[in-house]
Every structure is written in C-alpha cells, then in structure tokens.
# Entry
Amino acid sequence: MLKEQLPRIVTRLLRACGAMPAVRRVLGGQGLIVMLHEVREDPAAELQQGCPPETLAWMIAWLRAEGWEFVSMDEARRLVAAGGTEGGEDGGRFVALTFDDGFRDTMTQALPVLERHQVPLTCYVPTTAVNREMYCWWLGLRALFLRHDVVEIEALGARYECPDAARKRRALSEVTWWVHEDYRRKQQLQPSFARYGICLAGLNDRYFLTEAELRRFARHPLVTIGGHTTSHAAVAVLEEGAAAGEIAENRIYLQNLLDAPVEHFAFPYGDPLACGERDAALAALAGYRTAVATVDGPVSRQNPHMFLLPRVAAPIEIDPVGFDGRVSGVYRHGADLARRLGVMR
# Structure
C-alpha cells in the first residue's frame, strides 16, 4: 500500500514545501502529451469510464495556469525535434492533447470544450472502429457487467457476483487486467460475449464515429486525425509482416477517406507488452512522423524517442495532486525522490 501511495505522498510533500517548480525543471521534461479516450457527462453510468467535460476544462485551465502552452502534434513534433521550446530551460513547456479510438464523444463532448479554450487535439482512429468491424472487447466487457449481476468468464474459470456498481467496477478491472497481461487472451472472451448476447457490432455503432462523421470532424481547424492500426491490435504480439500491415494499411485507409495526409500514430494499449522498438521502426517505415505509447510521464529533454513518445493519462476527476505528480515526472521517479527526501530507505 505504501509503495502505491508513495508518489502521491512525495508530490504532497514537494507541493507543501514549494519545491514543485524546481522539480518540474529537473524531471518535467520538454513537453507533455496527454492521453484521453472517452469524454462522458456521466462516467458512473459507464462504470466510471471516461473523463467528464468539466474535468477536461479544469485540466486545461490548470495546465495553462502552470505555464504550459497547448500545441498540435505537428507543433509538438517540431519542438521535440528542435530540442526545446522557445521559452528555454526555464520557459513554458508544450502540451498536446490526444484522444484514442475515434469515440463519437470526442466530437460531441470534447470538441466543444476545446473550442471554448482554443486547444487543438489529435484523434487516433482504427480502421475497424469506423467500418464497424472492430473486436472492441473492452466495451463488450463493460456491457457485460453493466447488464448482469452474475457473470461467468469461461476463459478465466471465474464467476463474478456483482449486484452493485462498486463490485461491477472491480470485476471489470480484474478481467481487463487479465487481458492486458497477454493481449492474445482477448479472443478467449468470445464465448462469454456469445453466451450473454453481447453484440460488438452494436457497440461499434453506439460509441464510434462513422465515416461521414469522421470526415466532418477532420475538417475542423483544431482537429488532427492520426492512425491507430487497422484492428486496434497489440502489434508486438504479431509477426512482423502482420504488424507492418496493421500500421501501414490503417494510414492508407484514413488518407483515402479524408483526402489528407495522416502523419501521427498511436500504438493501441501502448505498454511494453503491446509495442516496442521493432514496432516503432515499422511506424517510421509506414510514413508516420511521430508515434505515441502509454508509458507514463513527460517527454524527455534527453534523447526523446520520436516513435515511442510517452503520454500522461488525463484524470477522470479533478485531482491537482495526482495530476501534478504525473506531469512533473514525480510519479515516474517517485521511489528515488522518496529516498532522497527520507520518506523511505
């Protein structure tokens, strides 16, 4: 428990003694790429999935008050390649907002907030989300636990009794992490979806942008569309040829659909089990100019990897301490800082 709470404890100590500005200069990196998925007015109705619009607005205001400058991914790439911001070592840092998967609420819920604040966004879109063929297993699991108080997952040999929202969230989290331990397991959920009548095609229709909506969305001056593989695949578990196809064919599809260049990419899942150096090279070979992962933390000033850029997850509730810890680099370096501060040996 202490280990889990340690970064937050360290952040509180640093904030209390006024040391956070100095820490940000040392650990905060050159810039920040923020990751979001859904933006939902009522996350509780979706088992606490998604960032509410008011939290998104708070995050933007907080970052601006701390001196961050919002930029597009095109500008973020230019700044990373140049090795710094115009503000210099002690000047402002950049922040780019990114949204994964092509959820419809990126257009209907997030965009109005970003329009008010004049903040650009990049939306990473898998082909099969738009053409309604995506195996959106995580949405299937959510629907399964939302609709049923008793759920059996055959592949796990597990039976969950979850008559209330808290137990539904815990069960959803447990099965989700089981998949994240080995992304090949996601196919093993199909018998459970079939047994409970979960229609993944219907969930695609409910949650994701259509081709016509995506074309309209992409024309907005604040919006950049990026690639996200054909089928939302964890490319690291695929043979090289299949991984290359997932990355390159998605770019071709989006460019043909939008009649515009697609130059930025996000690895689905984005952790070390889902993408690595081989896959970064494949993204570069496909013609992308950046690729982002989900390794938590700011973009490094020293030797940033343009095709495995880290991101910080947006908060799902207003949380100055937790968010400050992530954007400042404290969460990534918490244990070392704690030893220096004498919090732990």
Q: What stands out?
A: DSSP finds 15 helices and ten strands in the chain. The beta strands are 31-36, 69-70, 94-100, 121-125, 150-153, 158-161, 223-227, 264-266, 290-296, 309-313. Confidence is low (pLDDT under 50) at residues 86-91. The two ends are 16 Å apart (CA to CA).
